[in-house]
Amino acid sequence: MEEKRRDDLAASRAEEYAPRPTGSLFMAGVAGAGLLLAADAIISGFYAWPLRDNLESLAVLMVAGFAGGLAVFLRLKKKNQRARRNERAQINRDEEAKSRQRQ
Q: Which of the listed residues 13, 15, 59, 97 has the most CB atoms within 10 Å of its CB?
C-alpha cells in the first residue's frame, strides 16, 4: 500500500475515536473566555452582584478561560495525533504480516 493511502486510512480510523479539533487555536481560547464570562454573568445576576464592580476579576477570569480553551484544544490535537500515529503503526504491522503470509 502506498504511503499516501496509509496516511489517509490512519487518519480516517483515528477520526472515529479521536476527532481532530475544529476551528483554530485562537477561537478555542475565545470560546473558553466567553464561556467563563457567561457563567460569571449568570452567577452575578443570580446573586445581584454588579459586574462592573469587579472588572479585575472579570479580566482574570477571561484570561483563565482563554488559557483553558487553548489547553483543551491542544489536548484534543495531541490526542488525535497520537491516535493517527498508533493507527499508522497498526497499518504498517498489518501490511508486514500480509507480506509475510504471501512469501
A: 13
